[in-house]
Write a structure and sequence with these properties.
- By secondary structure, this protein is of the alpha+beta class.
- Helix content is about 20%, strand content about 30%.
- The chain has three helices and seven strands.
- It has a three-stranded antiparallel β-sheet. Strands 4-5 form a two-stranded antiparallel ribbon.
- It is elongated and about 60 Å long.
């Protein structure tokens, strides 16, 4: 979550402290992540992490993900999404690249695309 996203929450809140409650994205345990705004406008987050992974979406379309402090310390990135299948043409028909043999997958990574 960016500071701009947090600033939107603080603009709607009369308090300089906001607590986000939910379940940890990794361990699924209950978590309460606290955010506070200092008088100088600096925002700090404690007891975990907040994520808005979808970029370019409006605030109402975004989903908030929480991580507890222990899981954030172990792995600060937000992962565990459904994989996206990439299809490409091979010998006249479309196949998922993940089903190709290792050599063909490496060859696919070296391909460059051209825009007209």
């Amino acid at each position: 979550m960016t500071k701009e996203d947090l600033q939107l929450f603080f603009n709607d809140s009369p308090s300089p402290n906001i607590e986000f409650c939910g379940t940890c994205h990794d361990c699924k345990n209950p978590v309460a992540v606290k955010a506070a705004m200092a008088e100088d406008g600096e925002v700090t987050v404690s007891d975990g992490a907040l994520y808005y992974p979808q970029t370019g979406a409006t605030q109402g379309d975004k989903k908030l993900f929480l991580k507890c402090a222990a899981c954030f310390k172990q792995n600060p990135t937000l992962k565990d999404y459904q994989p996206c299948d990439v299809y490409s043409r091979v010998v006249g028909y479309l196949r998922p690249v993940s089903d190709w043999n290792e050599g063909k997958q490496d060859e696919f990574k070296l391909r460059s695309t051209y825009e007209i």
